[in-house]
Amino acid sequence: MLLVAFSLNSYMPTPAASGEHVRSIKSLFSCGLYFSAEMRKIRAIFFDLDNTLSDFMRMKEEACRAAVRAMIAAGLDMTQEKAYAVLMKTYFAVGLESDMAFSEFLKSVGQFDHKILVAAINDYLKTKNDFIKPYPNVELVLQKLQKEGVILNIVTDAPKTKALQRLSTMGIKRYFKFVVGHEDTGREKQTGLPLMLALNKLRREVPGILNSEILMVGDSMERDLNPAKKLGLQTALAKYGQRTEETGTADYELIEIKDLTNFV
Ligand SMILES: [Mg+2]
After folding, report:
1. Cα of 113 to ligand 1 centre, how many Å?
2. What is the CA(209)–ligand 1 centre distance, in A?
3. What is the CATH number of the domain that holds 83?
4. Of 3-17, 210-224, 249-263, where does mean pLDDT reach its minimum?
5. Which residue, among 131, 128, 79, has the nearest Cα to 101 in the 3D structure?
6. CATH code at 222?
7. pTM for the whole thing?
8. Disulfide: which of 52, 102, 103, 241 matches 120 by Cβ 3.0-4.6 Å?
9. Could you list which residues have their CB under 5 Å from ion ligand 1?
10. CA 54 to ligand 1 centroid distance, Å
């Protein structure tokens, strides 16, 4: 990365500076060539939601185990372990946010029955709500960051309604200025489009904020941090939520969410 070492003040355009000069200084800033990312104060954060603020996979696994127990009690003829394995495989095939997983599962094992389906859905929903919880200290960290004037936002691939539901259930929705969800662009974060939309929304709140003054926090290099790096944002990897090892490096690694307060 090209690092140009001079101070901001000495290169601020004077009132007499030409428009062209002002534009070139601004473009230097927006390209992130002016300072190394680490030197910039963080003024806003884009948080991923699932496995970054809440343990989504734990919720999914516990809710699916409850659904399997309910289905067996309602007449499903399978062992718990086998049914759980096939159900999770079905979820990964149809999408973790899909509402069709149970009916697809029952069809795939040749045991579709409305009575069994309803038992699964009811116990799944009941258990899911019990397990939608933020990781320890999430609210404390959000409170502290908000108090310091950092603008907090969510950028998630989850459907917007489900993201808002989870934030409400966890009691942390009020900390976020906006939520960018899947429907806002119809594309996944890997494409960079949701982040670009979030940057536009943020600039309406904070005109002139630089990409290098924004931190992306997420549990996935591929989905969250690599697209953010391409746009010149600072990045922090939520190691505590990472389910599989990935290549690539972030500016910061968080062993717990509280680590954010060490550098923001
Ligand atoms: Mg995530």
Report:
1. 34
2. 25
3. 1.10.150.520
4. 3-17
5. 128
6. 3.40.50.1000
7. 0.79
8. 102
9. 48, 50-51, 219
10. 9
